[in-house]
Amino acid sequence: MLIRPPQPVEELLCFNAEKVYDWVMLQETVNQTVLAADLGVLPIDPCGPTVSNLTTRCYLVDPLTGNPLPPNAEIAVVETADRQDREFIIDGTQVTLQRVSFEKTLSLVVEFSGFDGTTPFLEIGDPIEIEIPESVFLCAPEGTRLVVRVSDVTCSASINCTATTLTSVDVSLNVCQSVQSVADVTLELEASFCEPRDVLAIDECPNPIIPPQCPVVFPGRHKPHPPKK
Q1: 211 found inside a domain
Q2: Disulfide check for 40: which of 35, 126, 177, 189 has CB 3.0–4.6 Å away?
């Protein structure tokens, strides 16, 4: 039998945390034509005469590693202007918000796959930087900072050819982003310290296991014997 220690008494504790002052979702669509020269050297020209079953796609990557950008990834932003106060009436109450202007730079790659003759191929162009300016009203007083995360991305790409040579790629990028104004604060909460859990009891003897039976086969269903005369 496990004996649990007495529960600790709750007390006031202090925590360092990140307070969210405001939070909005923004959506931005960018349509851009990328010249073939900006894609770098492609071993196989997607417009070549021997290329078939071509598939073209695009996606965001981490500018430092080149790996696909993971879900909910935080991206760096640069504020491009001083924050400006503006008064709003919200639910009958006057509120002061700040106009926050910033710019984010996304790194995008275009991927080509298909067959060169009968040989399958996959090639990726050099990363392309896409700069997107933003402006939004937030509760973002002095001392707060912006945290921007990419919550959802859709991207499509189509090639433009001159004869059998790639000239450019039309890219359509739709980005949904989470924008928060945050600041570091110290919170006082009434709480109790966590205790380690009990060790699992693995040395107890189990009950005997009865092998499964086959009642349909044995003893089966027996017809009652007819009465003796």
Answers
A1: no
A2: 126
**CA dihedral sign of residues 188, 190, 196, 201:** negative
Q: Write the DSSP symbol of residue 138.
A: E
Residue 221 lies in a domain: no
Rounded Cα–Cα distance for residues 208 and 177 (Å): 58
Q: Which residues, in sequence order, are bridge partners of residue 146? A: 181
The answer as to whether 215 is a domain residue is no
Q: How far apart are CA 116 and CA 45, in angstroms?
A: 9
User: Average pLDDT, whole number, for the chain?
Assistant: 86
In this structure, the number of other CB atoms found within 10 A of the CB of residue 100 comes to 23
Of 34, 78, 43, nearest in space to 169 by CA: 34
Count of domains forming the chain: 1
Name the pTM for this structure.
0.72
Give the structural domain span for 153.
15-188
Q: Specify if 134 maps to a domain.
A: yes
Taking the C-alpha atoms of residue 64 and residue 201, their distance in angstroms, rounded to an integer, is 48
In this structure, what are the phi and psi dihedrals at residue 36, rounded to the nearest 5 degrees? -60, -35
pLDDT > 70? residue 227: no
DSSP state of 197: P
- How many other C-beta atoms are found inside a 10 Å radius of the C-beta of residue 132? 17
